[in-house]
Amino acid sequence: MHELSIVMSIIDIAKKQIQGTDATDIEEIELEIGTLSGIEANSFEFAWNQAIKNTPLQNAVRKINHVEAVAGCMDCMIDFSIKNLFDACPVCGGHFLNIKKGKELKVKSLLVNYASEQ
Amino acid sequence: MCATCGCDADGTVTMHVPGEDNSHEHGHGHSHVTKIVDVEQDILHQNNLLAERNKGYFDAKNILAMNLVSSPGSGKTTLLEKTLTDLKGQLEFCVIEGDQQTTNDADRIHATGTKVTQINTGKGCHLDAHMVLHALQGMKPKNNSVLFIENVGNLVCPAMFDLGEKERVVIISVTEGDDKPLKYPDMFYTSTLCIINKVDLLPYVPFSIEKVKENALKINRNLTIIELSCTTGIGLDQWYQWLKSKVVAPELA
What is the pLDDT of residue A18? Predict the structure, then answer.
């Protein structure tokens, strides 16, 4: 359900980026979403399709870079890929982890059409 | 438009204070050039900025802000009622309540004599820093006070939204499952205190205190865990002790 809040924030970010320019529309938007970011794909899709209507993103192609989660074990200092926050270190079985990758939630770039040279 | 943050207060999020009749409310032509614009912006950036602003406000006024999160029905409001009544006079309190609809919770808090504002999120499923900022502007909490923010009953979405709080308290009751921390890891990961409520019902439910603690610590090994019952009063003194230990004396602030 919070996916709708997230989509609204993405729309705000996109709007701010093209504010004050003569952009006609946004062709593509590139997002970076980590596997541990808490975003559920179907909810996101649903929210996206509804929320982008009548916004500069309404015709944009959505590219999502899914960042696989990587954790560092604070006890034996190795890095390993994780699926869940409660996964144990495969070497020592410990749960004292530092999540290094996988919580990303960002707008990376936009492909914007302008009426004239910027 | 809100002068503070440029938001359009379109009336979907509303604020209420018990006893007051108020509504404080917060062509296709030819495209010639196509360009890639690097944005690199965190989507929760806006919320995080406002959360930092709230944090600064709390620090400046020496307000201990706590975000209470849980499923609906785990006993957040009852715990607050008990706390506000038992510690009356010992600490200065104020409360921000979050629910989709009604002022029911705020009315209960109001009955304890504590200053409270109700935020109704409408269709929204969580409080965010922006809503809290506006509630604070209306409430004007006193310096050196304790602010409880009772979030919308929801163990999923509130986890993502920093409100600027100092402590996040996740409450689960023994009538829920002892695997709750594993099912809702983000909430336990981001909390600082876990309260296990309704322990007076333990004889009647298949809930294992050992299991839930083990699961919670798997997610967040720094979590402090307190077991209590608002009905019998057991464990409440531990909660009050923890609370008081987090208050910074005015002369040290």
Answer: 92
User: How far is Cα B16 from Cα A1, in angstroms, rounded to an integer?
Assistant: 24
pLDDT at A1: 60
Residue among A4, A9, A17, A118 with most chain B CBs within 10 A, to mutate: A9
Is residue A74 within 8 angstroms of chain B, CB to CB? no
Residue A69 is part of a domain; what is its CATH number?
3.30.2320.80
Domains of chain B: 45-248 (3.40.50.300)
- Record the pTM: 0.82
- Two tokens at B182? 């594993």
Q: What is the ipTM of this complex?
A: 0.75
Task: Quick: pLDDT tens for A25-77.
Answer: 899 999 999 999 888 888 899 999 999 999 999 999 999 999 999 999 988 88
Convert A91-107 to b/e letters by CB count within 10 Å (16 or more is b): eeeebebeeebbbbbbb
Q: Contact B139/B40 with Cβ under 8 angstroms? A: no
- Cα dihedral B131→B132→B133→B136 (10° resolution): 130
Q: In this structure, are residues B149 and B119 in contact, taking their beta carbons and an 8 Å threshold?
A: no
